[in-house]
Write a structure and sequence with these properties.
This protein is mainly beta and 175 residues long. Helix content is 4%, strand content 41%. The protein has one helix and ten strands, in the order ββββββββββα. The chain has a five-stranded antiparallel beta sheet, with no helix packed on it. The protein is globular and about 50 Å long. It starts with 10 loop residues before the first strand and ends with a helix.
Length: 175
């Protein structure tokens, strides 16, 4: 009888926070976005997206907290991904952050104290303050892929894009 010590990544939490914009300035609005991909299209268009005001059809990916201003204590946005419950058709999930561009172009370098963390339980899988993508308006931060044994692997994937929210969701899964 053999057993594996590698259970893979099962349930993660993505937390995002940032400081509010200065008084009298338009609010900064950052959003966590998750894109799911099937075996048929692992890098093409996502099967579905989870972002503001949405959740996955099966309830395995949920945006639990959303802020449009960065005001308040603790994390401004929180997304939970229950990868171990995700249907077997899905082989890849890419998570990113996008800045809404309502009041002119804003990049991560324009947002004070922006940071994102990916946690599995109490274990921190990755963290970023977006310094490496300071000139970008959106960025991927993590990628989860289902391996041959059916468990999920994690890979930090901080990659910046100069794209509005719509364009980012179309490009975020590109390799």
């Amino acid at each position: 009888m053999s057993s594996s010590l590698n259970r893979g990544v099962e349930k993660v939490e993505v937390t995002l926070k940032w400081d509010p914009s200065p008084l009298g300035r338009p609010p900064h609005d950052l959003d966590i976005v998750a894109a799911t991909y099937t075996a048929d299209t692992p890098v093409d268009r996502p099967a579905y997206l989870v972002h503001f005001d949405s959740r996955s059809p099966d309830g395995t990916i949920i945006l639990e907290r959303e802020s449009r201003t960065g005001q308040g204590f603790g994390s401004d946005e929180v997304m939970t991904l229950e990868l171990d419950r995700l249907g077997s058709d899905y082989v890849r999930v890419v998570v990113g952050v996008v800045i809404q561009q309502r009041e002119g172009r804003k990049a991560f370098g324009d947002i004070s104290a922006a940071s994102v963390r990916v946690l599995e339980g109490l274990a921190e899988l990755t963290t970023s303050d977006f310094a490496d993508v300071a000139r970008s308006t959106s960025a991927t931060i993590a990628e989860f892929s289902r391996n041959e044994s059916g468990t999920w692997d994690f890979r930090p994937a901080v990659r910046g894009f100069d794209a509005d929210p719509q364009e980012f969701t179309e490009r975020m899964g590109s390799v």
